[in-house]
Design brief:
It is globular and about 80 Å long. The strands form 6 sheets. Strands 11, 12, 13, 14, 15, 16 and 26 form a 7-stranded mixed β-sheet that branches. Strands 18, 19, 20, 21, 22, 23 and 24 form a 7-stranded mixed β-sheet that branches. It is an alpha/beta fold.
Length: 545
């Protein structure tokens, strides 16, 4: 299956071309670091591009101050990883192993240079992406997550980091290896999130971690854009790529993780170009990197709560706030790409057990809770089917619960055939879960089939049913149907397939009424709509006094 980034171990170390080095020198300046000094520390913003002229830069273990990796950076190499494109935070402590001389170029000037020299951009982004992959796989990071197996808040942080492919180290409270015992002793054997060297985060949330990592609104130097894309699923990411490539100044606001509902899919096999399959997270992560290359920025996890229209025709949205209040962003056009979310079941104690045995995604993070237990998946769509296949490798057995009599109407044929033939999976037709059992963690469910009921012992229930659109924030400006899906095209009285009833507001993907609920169609709509948005922006400019 395709994965994110290239393999840093096998990727050749090709020096930058001399004319590219000369161009970096022209926008940067030389700096000297004596042996033992910190070139860039954890928590610092990735606001400069560092090219090594002579000397050696090593990665340092923040707890022991020893070299963390056997490899280091030498002459003709450069520092940084993919977060540089979005102005995020540095995850590693970098130190001059010997007297070192470098060229440092400001991030903004470097991004401008990369946009003008595609060969330079391709080289740098390839290396940056490979480094992010290596950091993620080796779990080299300033973030430590302890106790996701015991605490729903800590688990929410871990899920946010995992789905956004942000490097972190995770420790379960019942771990017995020396490193886990040492880390747990630092925080009194209680679930916690540690940032940097020893900063324990009080009341951990994805938002607080995002602020530390430089993923929140603080990365934005402005509050007005050409286009505001609300939602970072396949449709929103595709629009972000094409908007950036067309020179449209765009910002993506995502409330959970880039990838949306597709990001919860462990494997997509019917997307063109990936014959061995690709996870939803990796697919959209690649798109995010492309979009950032063209200048589009991403802010997360922030939720748009309302939108209003100014007298000049521009739109202003209000984002969810914290103790410092809410934030406002304005744009001349808005793209609604908020997709849908799985519906909740009307079950007692559901909310208390969410994150404690009840999940809405099936990735590697959730799969570890399936070890030594049966897993139950509710749903008859492709996402539920892929989840069942993926979880069957970790769980003792998987039960797929379907209300109807067949999977044919809601699931791809290749997938339903695999499920029916897999001895590790049992499909329960005409069935529903009617009760949850367990106090602090799910222990069992009650399964009702026709007139009979049975109890299935399980510590992992995955709910993947229905599609509830995320459109409440539109404040009535763009009309929706009776189910909340946004009306576009002829249904909205518009000639443009993606235009809504509000001028300057467009909608694409699963949130659009009568759309095809497939990743490929969402990507197609997000790509095509940008030309319509460009026309709208151009016309509004010409009409402005």
């Amino acid at each position: 299956m395709e994965t994110l980034g290239q393999d840093l171990e096998t990727m050749r170390r090709v020096p930058l071309a001399q004319d590219h080095v000369d161009a970096i020198c022209a926008i940067g300046g030389e700096k000297f670091y004596p042996a033992g000094s910190i070139v860039m520390d954890m928590g610092e913003p990735l606001d400069r591009f560092v090219y090594v002229v002579e000397g050696e830069v090593e990665v340092v273990d923040p707890y022991t101050d020893e070299r963390l990796l056997p490899a280091s950076l030498g002459p003709t190499q450069f520092m940084g990883e993919i977060g540089f494109l979005n102005g995020a935070t540095n995850y590693l402590r970098m130190r001059a192993a010997v007297d070192t001389r470098v060229i440092e170029a400001p991030r903004t000037a470097m991004l401008d240079l990369m946009s003008r020299v595609p060969e330079l951009s391709d080289h740098i982004i390839t290396v940056f992406a490979a480094r992010r992959r290596k950091q993620y796989e080796l779990k080299n990071s300033a973030v430590k997550v302890i106790g996701a197996d015991r605490n729903a808040a800590v688990q929410a942080v871990e899920r946010f980091l995992s789905r956004n492919r942000i490097p972190f180290q995770s420790y379960d409270m019942d771990g017995r290896d020396a490193e886990t015992v040492q880390v747990c002793s630092l925080i009194g054997h209680e679930p916690a999130v540690i940032l940097g060297r020893d900063t324990k985060l009080d009341d951990p949330t994805p938002r607080k971690v995002a602020q530390y990592l430089g993923l929140d609104l603080d990365i934005c130097s402005q509050r007005t854009y050409d286009l505001l894309i609300v939602g970072g699923g396949p449709a929103g990411v595709a629009a972000a790529v094409y908007a950036g490539s067309e020179g449209i100044q765009a910002l993506v606001v995502e409330d959970t993780a880039v990838g949306g509902q597709a990001g919860t899919s462990s494997r997509i096999e019917n997307y063109m170009g990936f014959p061995t399959g690709i996870s939803g997270t990796d697919l959209t992560w690649r798109g995010q990197v492309q979009a950032m290359k063209f200048g589009t920025r991403f802010v997360m996890p922030r939720r748009v709560e309302s939108v209003s229209r100014r007298e000049d025709g521009a739109y202003c949205v209000t984002l969810d706030g914290d103790n410092n209040g809410s934030d406002e962003l304005c744009a001349r056009a808005v793209l609604v790409a908020t997709g849908v979310q799985y519906r909740r079941l009307p079950l007692d104690h559901l909310e208390e057990l969410e994150g404690a045995g009840v999940f809405y995604s099936a990735t590697e993070m959730e799969a570890r809770f399936c070890a030594r237990t049966d897993a139950v998946v509710i749903g008859g769509g492709n996402s539920a089917g892929q989840a069942a296949m993926f979880l069957s490798r970790a769980a003792g057995h998987v039960h797929l619960v379907v209300r109807g009599s067949s999977l044919a109407a809601s699931m791809s044929s290749y997938l339903s055939q695999r499920l029916e033939a897999d001895p590790r999976i049992t499909i329960h037709y005409h069935s529903e879960v009617t009760a949850l059992h367990g106090d602090t963690w799910l222990e069992a469910i009650t399964l009702k089939t026709h007139q009979s009921e049975r109890r299935i012992d399980t510590r992992a229930l995955f709910i993947m049913i229905g599609a509830a659109p995320n459109t409440g924030w539109l404040s009535g400006l763009a009309e929706t149907d009776e189910k909340g899906f946004v009306l576009t095209g002829a249904a909205a009285g518009q000639a443009d397939d993606y235009a809504t009833t509000a001028p300057g507001i467009f909608a694409v993907g699963d949130v659009r009424a009568h759309s095809v609920k497939r990743v490929a169609s969402a990507v197609g709509e997000g790509s095509v709509v940008v030309s319509r948005i460009w026309q709208y922006l151009d016309e509004s400019r010409r009409q402005s006094p």
